[in-house]
Amino acid sequence: MNITTLLILLLAGAIVTLISGDKLASRVALLFSLVAFGFSLNLLFQFNQGTDISFVSNWIDNPKVAFALKADGLSMAMVLLTTALTPLIILSSFGNNFNNSKNFYALVLLMSFAMIGTFLAADGLLYYVFWELALIPIYFIALIWGNGDAEERKKAVVKFFIYTLAGSLFMLVGFAYLYSKAGSFLLEDLYKLELSDNEQFWIFFAFFLAYAIKIPIIPFHTWQAKVYQKAPTVGTMLLSGIMLKMGLYSVIRWQLPIAPNAAKEYMPILIGLSIAGVVYGSIVALRQKDLKKLLAYSSLAHVGLIAAGCYTLTVDGLNGAVYQMIAHGFVIVGLFFAAEVIFRRFETRKIKELGGIRSQASGFTSMFMILVLASVALPGTYNFVGEFTVLYSLSQVNLWFALIGGTTIILGAYYMLRMFQHTMLGETNTKVFAEVSLNETIVFVVIIGFLLFFGLYPKPINDLVNPAIKEILAVINR
Amino acid sequence: MEMNLAILLLLSPFVGFLFNVFFGKKVSKGFSGTIGTLTVVVSFLLSVCFFAQLNQNGKAFEFSLFDWIQVGNFKLNFGILLDQLSILWLLFVTGIGSLIHLYSISYMHDDENMHKFFAYLNLFVFFMITLVVGSNLLVMFIGWEGVGLCSYLLIGFWYKNQDYNDAAKKAFIMNRVGDLGLLIGIFILAINLDTINFTDLNAGVVALNKTGGNQALQWAALCLFIGATGKSAQIPLYTWLPDAMAGPTPVSALIHAATMVTAGIFMVTRMNFLFDLTPNVQHVIAIIGTITALVAAAIGLLQNDIKKVLAYSTVSQLGLMFLALGLGAYNVAVFHVITHAFFKACLFLGSGSVIHGLHGEQDMRKMGGLRKAMPITFWTMMISTLAIAGIFPFAGFWSKDEILMTAFHENKTLWIVASIASIMTAFYMFRLMYLTFFREFRGTEEQKNHLHESPSLITIPLVILAVLATIGGAINLPGSTWLNHYLEPILAGKHEEHHLGSTEYMLMGIALVGAIIGIVLAYSKYIKQAFVPKTDNEIVGFSKTIYNKFYVDELYTATIVKPINALSNFFRTTLEPALSKVVFSFGSVAYGLSSQGRKLQNGNIGLYLFVFVIGICAIITYLFIAQ
After folding, report:
1. Residue B478, domain member (yes or no)
2. B394, B346 in Cβ contact below 8 A?
């Protein structure tokens, strides 16, 4: 058994969902995503046993493109993040009734498929195809099933599509150049390339545009908030929970090892820009009036810190970045879901119109509170493990980076608690807040359980990721 | 066996927390409170056992539960360290914790969310234990942030009131400012020493100091102290504590007087070997502590809310403890921590009893004459007031006297300022007592008819604490300095004994006379002249400045909160759209190049996909040709 089966499974899932019809679609999709999750756990087990689960075969002869999927600890971590979050995201949508739901859920599985492909691809062009393929489902999901004024939504989503696509094209040009040098797109061949500093600069910059837009790093973030707000919550979750990690993952997998000298040369600028995103995102989040937009900017702040960790080029920085990707993936899905749960009942996400929910729904309040606390990286949550490790790595580079990046500890608490206060606390709301359903509770409980368990016992993830990071660092420092 | 007991000690309150979260609503209020109390009592009894054992063999006990975080070249265990310092803290945290839990069974009985109250209180004790027993700085940090969380939850316990929620939020955020400092301090130590285990740090710090790393140590010490100013409410991060009085009174007693706010002192004492090597930072600590003691005492002079007076008093007393820390007299600071825990917990619980009796009234201007109706409350509070004022032979006399004595020997200016703060303390505390318990009752007729002593669940803890406030000084009487010897392994015998000579007796005399002056001044103003503080808008001049707490809150709002929010608004309404426009204009330029571009902007999805596919094809074709 190898990792291709996982991809086939998800693709088959998308097709079956499409045929199964609107009534069954959500359940079929959930079933396939759960099987895929179980399957990836099995793969992890085999991987830990030392079994080779990679798959390499020739695909196109000229130019030489290989269908190469390789798994190391880093890829496995990202694949598991995707397969674990996908069923949760699907389950979270059970309270919504989508028109044409067979298309909707097929697209969700297709997106999961493409993202997993991105995390596994070990051939530049194959990777690029998956990378772009992931954009198409989310584009339709956001455009067709999104909310708010249709014209405005279209504008935001199309902007997002073209913007990220434009960024990726630079990456493609970069790959073309690399191919002309190496005669292959294979990752291992690209790792062996001896590029001059000048070449590295251009390659690094071309990749950077693609990733900086996807992650996003300021000032390339302008597409983000609007799309998060306008997309249906499932789409927002897919975007923020998994898709933006594609950019961060790619920094570690492709950008840094292929152009390490450029990365070292521009390290202070890159970290500086990333950290500026932390502060900027936090400050913008402070006065947001819409729950989803606030969370979008909090996300901007958090990924800024992750990116900063990546660009430290230290073991701790890269490890911490991966931890934080996982932690952020879970918590942001949980938080967007909380916003959705509120929206289902009150039909608004405007913070001003909310409040007074706690006295009606204490269970939901507690779960939301825990997610808020995880988001502000309270010790005991996995987010703390990630944030601590990243901040520690920043302090290794320069204490000022840690100090400025560390303001997220304060500002994060400020905007999250303020949001929580005005959303949940205060005099009982005049509108009735219906009890959270079983499905909704399951989503919250799984996410919270994950964050608390690994917050106290992060060793399994550490043991998985650490060796892979060390290998990549060996390539970077070759 | 020992290990299991230690785990039980740690987890018992957590079990209470889980019980009250999941089953608290289903059982009766009394039962929920009883479980909450018993789980803390279990921890207390175990603490006593460990204490007894430690006294027998004198050996610290350390073990690791599991690997936690791995960074750099070192692994961090989830480790537990039970030594003289942590067991001492355990004793009074769980001991006073038990009493306050007991008290709360009665005090919170009418609250619909009583089980939640106990859940939070249990969770607090759990985190406080974690803070105290952690064997490295990061496990301590779990507890450190955890108690901050519980403080947040409990200050905002009555969550329907947004003012209370604001106070809770403020406490959490200000604490986090300190926490960032603490974290940076941890980073500096970790980078330079590759360890943050307490038992390894000592040797590491000394070695680093010898190899020219003193500057790093100074920064580390300063950052740790910034952390302490947050948690222990020192200048400049003290303003959250008075606001924290929004929480139910048992919370004020437990968290905001006796235990959590002493975390900063615990941490500095724990890291004493570091601070000993950084005299500059010690000076900063002593000065900040002294100024805080003075400023807070001055504000306390004119407050009319009974809990606010006690809150500023707490800030002021903590300042005195930091003065002692800054002078390197860790044992003296710890001594005052313990006696203060006794009498301040008693005072808060007493004020709670008063508030309870008056159905929520906290303004002393509407109290008076309660002595007869509430004799137990009165007498226990009186004892504690004598203790805090520093009257012989109550507990506070001995501990405060040691602080002043140390200050006298080290730095006369600090001694004078601290003495003035002490006189003020005696004044405002007796002002509180006179306004509350003497002369005529100034409340409503209805309240007057319902005046009564609180039930025994409330008065028993009061009595026990009052007894401790009376005799608590015995643990470190001059001459029989038990505490100093007990702490010797932690402080490596650095403390100096003050042998009782004529200077010492003179100093005691001066302190005592100072306290009596304060009391007499209060007596003449509030009993003889029967002065009742004016209504808020009648206060003018400098009194008004003091009454409004020197406008520090306003200052912070104007210089920090408002600018950040203004910046946020500017970013949101101006910069973000502008950035967005820049991106769009790039797009427009590109599309404007051809007439096809204009069609693109129509938003035709099919066309986009078509262009996308063509684009990929074009580039692949290019690759072919390039070959």
Report:
1. yes
2. no
Closest by CA to A405, choosing from A317, A284, A276, is A276
Cβ contacts of A427 on chain B, cutoff 8 Å:
160
Query: Measured between alpha carbons, how far is A214 from A221 in angstroms, rounded to an integer?
Result: 8
Q: What are phi and psi of A171, to 5 degrees?
A: -65, -40
Buried b (16+ CB within 10 A) or exposed e, B269-285: bbbbbbbbbbeebbebb
Structural domains counted in chain A? 2
Whether residues A386 and A346 fall in one domain: yes
Residues of chain A with C-beta less than 8 angstroms from the C-beta of B616: 132, 172
Q: How many CB atoms lie within 10 A of CB A196?
A: 9
A349 with A257, same domain: the answer is no
* Cα–Cα distance for residue pair B258/B269, rounded to 1 Å: 17
The nearest CA of chain A is from the CA of B161 a distance in Å of 6
Question: Residue B537: which domain range?
Answer: 278-547
Q: Which two tokens stand for residue B34?
A: 């009883």
- Give how many domains chain B has, as a whole number: 2
User: Same structural domain for residues A462 and A325?
Assistant: yes
Helix (H) or strand (E) holding B7: helix B2-22
CA-nearest residue to B584 within chain A is A159
Instruction: Evaluate the CA torsion angle B274, B278, B280, B283 in order and state its sign.
Output: positive
pLDDT digits (tens, 9 = 90+) for A106-153: 999 999 999 999 999 999 999 999 999 999 999 999 999 988 888 888
B593 in reach of chain A (CB within 8 A): no
Q: What is the pLDDT of residues A316-329, one digit of tens each?
A: 999 999 999 999 99
User: How many whole angstroms separate alpha carbon B607 and alpha carbon B602?
Assistant: 9
Within a domain: B52:
no
Q: Which domain holds residue A310?
A: 266-478
